[in-house]
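[09:14] KT: can someone run the structure on this one? pasting the chain below
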Amino acid sequence: MLHVRTRSAEETKQVAEAIEPVLQSGDVILLSGDLGAGKTVFTQGLALALGVSERVTSPTFTLAASYEGRIKLHHLDVYRLENLAEVVDLDLPGLLDDDAIVCIEWGEVVMPEIPREFLKLNIQLGHPEDIPDARVLEFEFIGPMWMQREGAIASRCAAWIEKD
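[09:31] RB: done, structure tokens below
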């Protein structure tokens, strides 16, 4: 597990931009954290690094948005889904088979439907309290493919790695 600390929304975007070269089409990133923690901000930084020209917003009410960039990006927010059966309406399997990077906010509800290998990113409000936009990004590498990339991601995030 890798812990990264950012001091602003801009730095959270920079972390996403920094790891973009390590990502590949077909990758799934499961984003978790409280409301307002920075899940969409992270996705905005990733979209910027991928060359997406459209404005990226949280797809809370549309559930899914797709963006064209160097690699296609699907951004899902499944907060409003109450059960796994609703995933059929979302066409999650189709989005996962689309040679895109898929970022899923609140993805715990759809975990049975995502690939066995994924990057789990938990974003928490950080400390100290005198930095209101501080965040801690906790990267969890699920599966051998992601574990092999842990070092590359850590290297690209070296400026933000939380030191004890």
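[09:33] KT: thanks! The longest strand covers residues 118-125.
[09:34] RB: yep, looked fine to me
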